[in-house]
Amino acid sequence: SFVAMVKGKNGNGMERKRTTSDARDGLEYNKKVRKLQDEAAAIEKKADEEEAKAAEERKETEEDYEDEFIPDPDCNPDTPRKVLFSDISAAAFNIKKGISKTPCTKSVQLSHKYGVDLYFKKEYLQVTGSFKERGARFALSRLTEEEKRNGVIAASAGNHALALCYHGNMMGVSVTVVMPVFAPLMKITMCRSYGATVLLKGNNIGKAKDYAMHISKEKKLKYINGYDAPDILAGQGTIGLEILEQVPDTDVVLVPVGGGGLIAGVAVALKTLKPTVKVYGIEAETCPSFTRAYEAGHVITEMAGSTLADGLAVPTVGCNSLATAKGLIDKMVTVDEGSIALSILRLIELEKAVVEGAGGVCLAAILSDKLPELQGKKVVAILSGGNIDTTVLGRAIERGLAVDGRLIRIEVVVSDRPGGIAELSTRIAQAGGSIKDIFHERAWISTDVFSVRVKVVAETRDKEHVLELEKTLKERYTDFSHLGTMVVHYNRQIENRPWLEGIRIRED
């Protein structure tokens, strides 16, 4: 008799005891084992080949998605559709049971501070934190029975996705959302919590939309454009109806502008009911796509730069939005990043309202003195959304403090002997400043080896206090600079030299 050791694929030995003394029986057994091993290897090889083939097919399919353009039938630039007041009235009737009628309240402190009778339409108080719920709810209510059974799809990185997922869940319509890969994890998680299918595709919203259009065609899902579908525009226009109901004697309404859906719907509602009301659109200066398209009279594509108002960074505005808004907008204004940050800070401090960058652009236009004609007028500013990431909020507050003269950076060369930095700290404290950060360097200083360059980040009361602090330090230190002032100075020098166009010195 003998003992046979059979070694399996996983490398473990399995002991088999044979009770016969016939050697040929052991050989036959080994042949059977080898045959089984060969069959297992063949199955594994076939599985690997099938997986590689599937991966190749997926790659080819994705390449086809990128190469083939599928248009949105509801948003055709050649035949744009204008939204009428009757569409907005129908939307108001259909969404009233599922949408909050948000307050439009006067800001006493900001009205007094800036000489404007200022009211805020607080759309950030909707369940998902933005005005997008209005259009999403109405678009879902207009689906046919077949479309409801099949479900809907949209491409969005934020508010439209949240609104569509929430109301789809409430109305029993399955929702698929295609988000860019950089979409915030919080928003992805929230969409999934509403029962939606979330697909991550592309490094920008344009590629996400292309992918969504192919999925829409393949699975027969209704695609809902978040800023240009006619039903979306009609839903957003209900804000205009509420504004005139809440503040009937309003003179001017300030509207954030990204893709154009909000201002188009609101303008139709306002101008139909009260033609004397002026409608101003506010954009981020890093992406003035609607301003350019409105001036040109047709849809064009602009480069979208990085901005706090990321919800407004839409390179190509909607064709239906542009056609609907034509002749109804009295003025377009762009605002810089500093003004947006200061606006977010002001709203937190004075209104106890946390808004995203897109929601703060209307107040930013007032803070930046770009609308002097509003003095003494009754003005309504739409706070469109409040979905701001916590980390971005922290940065916005600090940037706002810097713009407001309450956070400054200074550089001073002091003695490197004992007590040099202590004296600087004492002088800043005596002037009423509070040091937040301080650090020094020796290696890159051009003066004598017994000096050190100290960089200080300090908290101050306001811009007047900054001037007082500068005066105090300049009396004692000859090598002193306020970095904020230097940045402004050199950027002004650059602006006066056309050949340096596009170059800016960053504050950091």
Quick recap of the structure?
The protein is α/β, with parallel strands linked by helices.
Helix content: 40-55%
Number of helical runs?
18
Beta-strand share of residues: 15-25%
End-to-end distance, in Å?
Answer: 84 Å
Largest sheet: 6 strands, mixed
Q: Estimate the mean pLDDT confidence.
A: 85
Q: What would you say this structure looks like, in words?
A:
The structure is a single chain. The protein is an alpha/beta fold and 508 residues long. The protein has 18 helices and 16 strands. The strands form four sheets. A six-stranded mixed sheet has the order 3-4-12-9-10-11, sandwiched between helices. A four-stranded parallel sheet has the order 7-6-5-8, with helices on both faces. A four-stranded antiparallel sheet has the order 14-15-13-16. Helix 7 links the parallel strand 6 and strand 7. The chain is flat, with a radius of gyration of 32 Å. The termini are far apart. The N terminus and C terminus are likely disordered.
Secondary structure: elements and pairs:
Blueprint: E1 3-7, E2 13-17, H1 23-67, H2 85-95, E3 104-106, H3 108-114, E4 117-122, H4 132-141, H5 145-150, E5 152-155, H6 159-171, E6 175-179, H7 185-193, E7 197-200, H8 205-219, E8 222-223, H9 230-246, E9 252-256, H10 261-273, E10 278-284, H11 289-296, H12 319-325, E11 331-335, H13 337-351, H14 357-367, E12 378-383, H15 390-403, E13 407-415, H16 420-430, E14 434-441, E15 451-459, H17 463-476, E16 480-482, H18 483-495
Parallel strand pairs: 4-12, 5-6, 5-8, 6-7, 9-10, 9-12, 10-11
Antiparallel strand pairs: 1-2, 3-4, 13-15, 13-16, 14-15
Helix pairs in contact: 2-9, 4-6, 4-9, 6-7, 9-10, 10-12, 13-14, 13-15
